[in-house]
Amino acid sequence: MTESRITFRCGDLTLEGLLARPERSGASPAAVICHPHPMYGGSMDNNVVEAIQAAMRQRGYATLRFNFRGVGASEGEYDGGEGEAADARAAVEFLAAQPDIDCGAIALAGYSFGAAIALRAGLGDSRVMRVIAVALPVAAMDSGIDTAAAKRVVLVSGDRDAYSPIAALEKRLQKLGAAATLRVIAGADHFFGGYEPALAGAIEGALADG
Question: Among 160, 152, 208, which Cα is nearest to 182's?
Fold first, then answer.
């Protein structure tokens, strides 16, 4: 699977991304992947974003990872989360409009800040069937979880992650309800250095479980 550089619009802004398609014919499931915090060096060129993309690729997903507004060649500036959620929804719209995409099997995934944005944008978007939130920073920002989820949600975190502590995630899991699951990566901290294969494996397993 090769990635192609693309651009798409979010309102009056042009955002950049990398689009990959499975090397097979027929409609494919698809996923948008959101990167970590723009104000702390986050971009689509991130080890965890790449691990999520690798897991999706193994499961036959088309993928779109992109830079939020103000990052890389994406126009605009950081907007505190609201604009970034709009960026994510625009990315879903762009991906859903591509040929050979199964619009009944679109996922929205994210890491850290991107995980919070994926939940904010994805839980209320009827086009999104599944949300995957890696290292949701519940200790640093509002997770946006206040009601039960009407779609599948997968939370993934390392058991040494001070920003995404397991006990706090379990409380969010109770709010999300029976549609949500939590996968824990033993030994990993917030940055998953050296644990990228374990992270990809956990996401693959979650996707295989349906």
Answer: 152
